[in-house]
């Protein structure tokens, strides 16, 4: 009746099925505006359902304004509801056959199989059982205060920097920090200075907003800041402890020069310290923040040390920026979920973080050695290593070679996930002889077989002119 077909076994109630069917016919014009609907008794009899079911459906239509009703008269369809729906023309796409990834050298991926999941689950349960009703309310844009205090203690233990917990603000990872800092530090007609090459996270944010960019070339010692001395700068973004992606460590002379320039030209330095915990020769590199906390915004994350989906990072903010930060964060998402913050607080307080990092540093050092040995065994002296003393990836330079788009497509078709350094450059013809190899998430066998597969592919493509200049 009325084109309504009821599905008795559906998870949707009969009343809602009637409502949805009539609503759709009203919107398409199959039931005209002003047209009378059958009485609830008549429609119930025609559909073989109870009158109460139809009454419920009519009540839904009335509540949402699809029908009007007067006492003693039949319900009518309201005016102005007909919507002409345009036909969507779909373009047929040729589906490419998906090639499974057999050797995955993606960067920035920790070994999640070695994270102490039972301990973390225990801390999550403890947090669930101990949180008060008041702690489950909105807490504001700064973050869980005990976590800020434990991060300050942890930074002192691991970086030897003295941080006031009042200056620590919890974020949803480093990416959110970049979004906020770009808005806070922006000056009209002033450029943001970035390393070239650099991680796409921050320069994508800047490009999406249409802000000016000033690129700083990178060598084996990190960013060369001489090119920004005479420029109008909003802020400078650097990865000084382990430059991404080339791995250099910014020397003290360049750090001091950058701080002097920031003071002279009144801008802030954004220091992204994304993975310096994993250093394999000596202690972690001291951050620029330890040289001058008044001009440096320090951004840290737990994505590499714990697990990426945790989405907890932190920013150490100079006092003049804190009011703006609170305002922007309040109208972005207010705060991070409190449960994970409480668990992470315990993880830090009980020194489980310290123990986990020490354990993983030994594991990653072994994987790094396996990778370097495998590369040397396959390629002999044809490869130079960049940034192999820290982090979870290595940059490999192949002098005389050029890794073209065709070559990268060959890698994809061969099941090798690997990245060219040139894709992180402002101009695609820079650093075309370098590849990035992430290894943190791989086991030793995967590393050796993956390097061998890459060697064979490069040899094949070189003979075809796809990877040679």
Automatic annotation (TrEMBL):
<dbReference type="Pfam" id="PF00155">
    <property type="entry name" value="Aminotran_1_2"/>
</dbReference>
<dbReference type="GO" id="GO:0003677">
    <property type="term" value="F:DNA binding"/>
</dbReference>
<dbReference type="InterPro" id="IPR051446">
    <property type="entry name" value="HTH_trans_reg/aminotransferase"/>
</dbReference>
<dbReference type="InterPro" id="IPR004839">
    <property type="entry name" value="Aminotransferase_I/II_large"/>
</dbReference>
<dbReference type="InterPro" id="IPR015424">
    <property type="entry name" value="PyrdxlP-dep_Trfase"/>
</dbReference>
<comment type="similarity">
    <text>In the C-terminal section; belongs to the class-I pyridoxal-phosphate-dependent aminotransferase family.</text>
</comment>
<keyword id="KW-0805">Transcription regulation</keyword>
<protein>
    <submittedName>
        <fullName>Transcriptional regulator GntR family</fullName>
    </submittedName>
</protein>
<dbReference type="InterPro" id="IPR036390">
    <property type="entry name" value="WH_DNA-bd_sf"/>
</dbReference>
<keyword id="KW-0804">Transcription</keyword>
<dbReference type="InterPro" id="IPR000524">
    <property type="entry name" value="Tscrpt_reg_HTH_GntR"/>
</dbReference>
<dbReference type="GO" id="GO:0003700">
    <property type="term" value="F:DNA-binding transcription factor activity"/>
</dbReference>
<dbReference type="Pfam" id="PF00392">
    <property type="entry name" value="GntR"/>
</dbReference>
<keyword id="KW-0238">DNA-binding</keyword>
<keyword id="KW-0663">Pyridoxal phosphate</keyword>
<dbReference type="InterPro" id="IPR015421">
    <property type="entry name" value="PyrdxlP-dep_Trfase_major"/>
</dbReference>
<dbReference type="GO" id="GO:0030170">
    <property type="term" value="F:pyridoxal phosphate binding"/>
</dbReference>
<dbReference type="InterPro" id="IPR036388">
    <property type="entry name" value="WH-like_DNA-bd_sf"/>
</dbReference>
């Amino acid at each position: 009746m009325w084109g309504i077909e009821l599905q008795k076994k559906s998870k949707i109630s009969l009343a809602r099925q009637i409502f949805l069917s009539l609503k759709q016919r009203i919107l398409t014009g199959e039931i005209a505006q002003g047209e009378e609907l059958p009485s609830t008794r008549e429609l119930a009899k025609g559909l073989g359902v109870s009158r109460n079911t139809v009454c419920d459906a009519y009540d839904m239509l009335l509540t949402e304004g699809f029908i009007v009703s007067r006492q003693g008269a039949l319900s009518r369809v309201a005016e102005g509801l007909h919507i002409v729906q345009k036909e969507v023309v779909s373009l047929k796409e040729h589906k490419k056959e998906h090639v499974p990834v057999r050797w995955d050298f993606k960067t920035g991926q920790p070994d999640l199989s070695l994270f102490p999941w039972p301990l973390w689950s225990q801390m999550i349960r403890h947090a669930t059982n101990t949180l008060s009703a008041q702690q489950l309310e909105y807490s504001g844009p700064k973050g869980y205060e005990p976590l800020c205090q434990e991060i300050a203690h942890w930074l002192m233990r691991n970086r030897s920097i003295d941080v006031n917990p009042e200056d620590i603000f919890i974020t949803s990872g480093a990416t959110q920090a970049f979004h906020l800092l770009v808005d806070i530090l922006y000056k009209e007609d002033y450029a943001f200075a970035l390393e070239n090459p650099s991680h796409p996270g921050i320069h994508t944010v800047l490009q999406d907003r249409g802000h000016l960019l000033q690129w700083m070339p990178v060598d084996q010692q990190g960013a060369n800041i001489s090119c920004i001395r005479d420029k109008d700068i909003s802020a400078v973004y650097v990865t000084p402890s382990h430059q991404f992606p080339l791995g250099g460590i910014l020397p003290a002379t360049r750090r001091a020069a950058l701080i002097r320039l920031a003071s002279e030209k009144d801008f802030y330095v954004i220091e992204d310290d994304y993975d310096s915990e994993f250093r394999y020769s000596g202690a972690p590199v001291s951050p620029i923040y330890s040289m001058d906390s008044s001009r440096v915004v320090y951004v840290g994350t737990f994505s590499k040390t714990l697990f990426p989906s945790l989405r907890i990072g932190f920013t150490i903010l100079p006092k003049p920026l804190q009011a703006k930060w609170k305002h922007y964060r309040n109208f972005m998402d207010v705060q991070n979920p409190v449960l994970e913050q409480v668990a992470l607080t315990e993880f830090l307080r009980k020194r489980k973080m310290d123990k986990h990092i020490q354990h993983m540093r030994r594991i990653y050092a072994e994987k790094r050695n396996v990778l370097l040995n495998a590369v040397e065994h396959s390629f002999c002296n044809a490869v130079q290593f960049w940034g192999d003393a820290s982090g979870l990836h290595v940059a490999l330079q192949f002098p005389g070679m050029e890794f073209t788009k065709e070559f990268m497509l060959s890698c994809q078709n061969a099941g090798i996930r690997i990245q060219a350094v040139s894709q992180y450059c402002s101009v695609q013809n820079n650093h075309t002889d370098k590849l990035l190899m992430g290894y943190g998430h791989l086991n030793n066998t995967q590393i050796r077989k993956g390097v061998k597969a890459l060697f064979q592919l490069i040899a094949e493509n070189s003979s075809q002119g796809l990877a040679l200049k």
